[in-house]
Design brief:
Length: about 475
Amino acid sequence: MVQHHQDSEIFRSELNKKIMLSRDEIFAILLKTLSYSDGDQCEALIISNSNALTRYSNSVIHQNVLENDAGLFVRTVKGKKTGTAISNSFSPDDLKRTVKISSQICDVSEENPDFRSLPISNHIMSEKLVCEKTLNFAPIDRAKHIKKFTEKADKFGLSTAGTFSSGLYQIGILNSLGINAYFETTRAKFVAMALENENSGYASTSSYSVDLLDIEKKSDIAIKKCMESRNPVEIKPGKYKVALEKQAVNDIIKLFSYTQFGALAKQEGRSMMAENIGKKIMSEKFTIYDDGSAKEGLYFPIDFEGILKEKVVLVDKGEAKNVVHDSLSAARDNVKSTGHALPPGNSGNPYPLNIFLDGGEKSENEIFSNIEDGLLITRFHYLNPFLNLKTALFTGTTRDGTFIIKNGKISKPVKNLRFTQSMIEAFSNIEDLSLETEIFNDGSFFTLSVPSMVLNNFNFSGNL
């Protein structure tokens, strides 16, 4: 259900109502659901969220929405058959109906020879990473920050656009084999864009706590980049040394991880990992891992089967090491799940959601100031990672601040470029990584912590 409110005080009181299920309420529903099952095994999962969003463009707030949603996913197992049904109604009759539909789907499904069992556990897990201020942050609170950014941009003749979101996410899981897991967390994200004609600047900040958002600094960065982008020059396509700011690294690594580090892609021979486990395929400066339990990130310690997430080193100093598993993909490879199951409907197709890319030993300023001739990239846009999955061939464009670097300093703004580049090759050409890292979050479950990066011979294939 999406609710629209024009009056901020009405919306404030609406937001502060008790709109989420408590942990006890979630588990009462899950227990009742399991009691109706006629399967050999049964799993019940609730995913619940309350997410508020303020959207602005042309320096005006034009949308406030609040979405409250909770879904029940029931998976019934009979032998090697499974069936899943979904409902967002939790009345006893509807719970019975959902379980029955799951059972009926199971009955008419084909057997899956790879399926062994739902996860088995005697461990009860219940954690949260919650900021009460984030939970109760109202449109008027978000509007105050947007107004401050907009007024500052207006002094320089710039308009603004972006979003400010805040919300709560919960998952609760029970199965008939002892899985009992719960996690809840708040998320907040501020996106700032400053615009002038064809020029633009961009910055974003994410956290579980609105107090930890670096809103003023990010607003200033967006304004500065837009102003510095005036009168861009066109340069020839070709290979350049590039300084990727953390936002640009995040853009690449998010899709790189999505396409390369799930077990199914390896099992089907679609990823670079299919034939390269144990081989050095990138620079020894490249180490990437997934760790949903890491407290220094926006941790999310369980997967959607209720399994505790393990730290999985994906690439270690350039050597391809591991992929992530859920219970079904693990059964195919005769290994155990690493705790990377996605919501039902994605069984057997796990991927990492809590990515960490190791940094280097120097500050961003140091590694960028050592560049005699190159390009600085703020972020990438319109990324397509599916040109060739085994070589991780990507294409996309630069956006919101692309600049020539001469002797360690920004020289001129550049018109946006299209790149076509193998990421295996790119990450083989790492010159340096910054010591500092930054956390990026998509507003829900996907979190990355990445440094800035300097790459040699990055291929730009065209002008825009």
